[in-house]
From TrEMBL:
Residues 18-74 form the PEGA domain. One of its GO terms (molecular function) is formylglycine-generating oxidase activity. Transmembrane segments: none annotated. This is Sulfatase-modifying factor enzyme domain-containing protein. It comes from Odoribacter laneus YIT 12061. Residues 107-340 form the Sulfatase-modifying factor enzyme-like domain. It comes from the Bacteria. InterPro entries: CTDL_fold, PEGA, Sulfatase_Mod_Factor_Kinase, SUMF_dom, SUMF_sf. It holds the Pfam family FGE-sulfatase.
Length: 341
């Protein structure tokens, strides 16, 4: 280069940034400023400024304004149907919290309310316990319930810790007490502006049975637990048979498994039989014969209900009508939860 000589320099200045648009379901049609840009999820370049983004699902649609700036702002934008459209994020929420909790909320499944027979109905057989034996009618309003048990990644992004014995982002969180779950829910509601809760025992059983789509299975989604759930027999290195034996469980390295690996039930819910027991809101108590509407269980008690069975015990405990209970401070590697809203 000769001294003092001016050379031309060609610069390409960015006029936008890459943004991924998505909904809670693949294939929803996406629009930006009235122009169709593809289906969810879709990664595209958007120019700096304010854009109107829209998603359509049949006759349903949702839209929002998105400001694209040179620094900061959302790189993954989730358009919500159902609960996603009702989120009111706290000003303190972090990008990582928003990403992980959007997934959690997008995986909440709507359950249409209805009436069902709660308790040890005929498909459960004769080998049932006295506290599940009384069959009674319950009517429930609509609600949302988690497609999956709460993952460790979801717990950690809200609570800042992971108490689980078996570690893994997509493993169900465990070693959490009923009281711990309520602290998680309090913080989750503050971050999202939603009203999450533990399911009532009736909500849990109705959903486990498949709601209005129930086919009357013994377990949640099948009469064969192997298809839908993890128990001591199939959760370890080898398949176990015969009488339950704690020494066999430990020797076989039985443990929790990532949520959603088995087949779902009639509502598309996973792991409601097996993997981990799931806390319910109710105090534990014996059923009564009265027809109930949106039942919340006994007014007082010493133990809280847990449902669904777990990796540590055998299939009998994983039946949709079987009832367990623990003190509200109890923690163990077989005990987790899922959410309702």
């Amino acid at each position: 280069v000769e001294e003092g000589k001016v050379l031309p320099v060609h610069l390409t200045l960015s006029s936008g940034r890459s943004v991924t648009l998505q909904t809670d379901r693949e294939g929803d049609i996406l629009y930006v400023d009235g122009k169709r840009v593809g289906v969810s999820p879709q990664k595209l370049e958007l120019s700096y400024g304010i854009h109107t983004i829209r998603a359509e699902r049949g006759e349903q649609y949702t839209e929002k304004e998105l400001e694209v700036t040179e620094t900061g702002g959302e790189r993954v934008v989730t358009l919500g149907f159902g609960l996603l459209s009702q989120i009111r994020w706290s000003s303190s929420v972090t990008p990582k919290q928003k990403e992980i909790l959007s997934r959690l909320i997008g995986n909440m499944v709507r359950v249409d309310g209805g009436s069902f027979e709660m308790g040890a109905t005929s498909e459960q057989g004769s080998n049932v316990t006295s506290d599940e034996e009384l069959v009674h009618q319950v009517t429930l309003s609509d609600y949302y319930i988690g497609k999956y048990e709460v993952r460790q990644s979801e717990w950690e992004v809200v609570m800042g810790n992971n108490p689980s014995y078996f570690k893994g982002d997509d493993l169900p969180v465990e070693q959490v007490s009923w009281e711990d779950c309520h602290e998680f829910i309090r913080r989750l509601n503050a971050l999202t502006g939603l009203n999450f809760k533990l399911p009532t025992e009736a909500q849990w059983e109705y959903a486990a049975r498949g709601g209005r789509w129930s086919k009357g299975y013994k377990y949640s989604g099948s009469n064969d637990l192997e298809e839908v759930g993890w128990s001591w027999e199939n959760s370890g290195v080898q398949v176990l048979t015969g009488e339950w034996d704690e020494k066999k469980v430990k020797k076989n390295h039985c443990q929790t498994h990532p949520v959603g690996e088995k087949h779902p039930n009639e509502l598309g819910l996973y792991d409601m039989s097996g993997n981990v027991w799931e806390w319910c809101q109710d105090w534990y108590g014996y059923y009564n014969r009265n027809t109930q509407v949106d039942s919340a269980g006994p007014a007082r008690g010493s133990y809280r209900v847990a449902r669904g069975g777990c990796w540590f015990r055998d299939a009998w405990f994983c039946r949709v009508s079987y009832r367990n209970c623990q003190t509200p401070v109890h923690c163990y590697s077989y005990l987790g939860f899922r959410l309702v809203c």
